[in-house]
Amino acid sequence: MTRPPARFPGLRHLECLATMRLGAPVLSPDRMQMQRLAVFAAWEDEPALERFLSTHALGRRLAIGWHVRLEFLRRWGAVTEMADLPEVAGPCDPGEPVVAVTLARMRLPELPRFVRWGRPVERLVRDHPGTTLALAAVRPPRTVLTFSVWRTSREMTDMVHGRSDVDAASRHADAMVERERRDFHHEFTTLRFRPVSEHGVWAGSGDYTAG
After folding, report:
1. Is 180 exposed, middle or buried (CB count within 10 Å of its CB: 0-12, 13-18, 19+)?
2. Is residue 184 within 8 Å of 104, Cβ to Cβ?
3. Is 26's pLDDT higher than 90?
4. Do 40 and 162 form a contact (C-beta atoms < 8 A)?
5. How many CA atoms lie within 13 A of 189 on its CB side?
6. Would 172 be classed as within a structural domain?
7. Which residue has the higher pLDDT, 169 or 28?
8. What is the pLDDT of residue 22?
9. Comparing C-alpha atoms, which of 137, 206, 127, 202 is closest to residue 167?
10. Whole-angstrom Cα distance, residue 189 to residue 99?
């Protein structure tokens, strides 16, 4: 696993993970894609990100891939490294595209429960008509991240609350009830963002954030 830079001017936090295919069988090479790198990072400003992409070894590696730049809007829950983010940073139009990121530090004894409840949710998000892209990533043994791009904020919130017009629409809401009953995670946060710009190509396509 690639190690994140210990320090870089303007970098607030960076997570390096391996990609994971949502909904794939648990024990399969298709699910755990350890040779494909995913990075989630928070920056003080865009010039700092540009300097990283042009001057740092990891940044130059990432610059030839696909990435989306985001404006933070809302936070639920908390992980230590991002606990200073406000719960609400700005308004969100229900009709605008949004990106949802979840970041969790697992309780390892709860992993079998998490997989049992989580895989139906993975398929719900992956196959939902409101998503243009849905990905996951992992850094063993405890860190899990999901990343989904939604055509509209309304479609995302409808999915969360089980109001979507799809089969078994309550899968996400049911899993959240189970998490409240006995938490799967040591730390957990869901973050909502407004996409600002998209760069490069993922899986042969682009414009996932166009709405």
Report:
1. exposed
2. yes
3. no
4. no
5. 15
6. yes
7. 169
8. 82
9. 127
10. 14
**208 in a domain, yes or no?**
no
In a domain, 158, yes or no: yes
- Cβ atoms of 45 and 25 closer than 8 Å: no
Residue 1 binned pLDDT confidence (cut-offs 50, 70, 90): low
The answer to whether residues 3 and 42 touch, using CB atoms and an 8 Å cutoff, is no
Q: Please tell me the distance from the alpha carbon of residue 57 to that of residue 59, in angstroms, as a whole number.
A: 5
Is the predicted pLDDT of residue 3 greater than 90, yes or no? no
Distance, CA of 71 to CA of 189 (rounded, Å): 16
Q: Reduced to 3 states, what is the DSSP secondary structure of residue 30?
A: coil
Closest-CA residue to 93 (of 199, 195, 204): 195
- Which pLDDT score is estimated for 31? 77
- The pTM assigned to this predicted structure is 0.93
Check which CATH number belongs to the domain holding 183 and give it: 3.30.70.100
Domain that holds residue 184: 11-198
DSSP 60-118: HHHHTS-EEEEEEEEEEEE-GGGTTS-SB-S---TTS-EEEEEEEEE-GGGHHHHHHHH
Residue 4 in any domain: the answer is no
Mean pLDDT for the chain? 93
pLDDT in tens, 161-183: 999 999 999 999 999 999 999 99
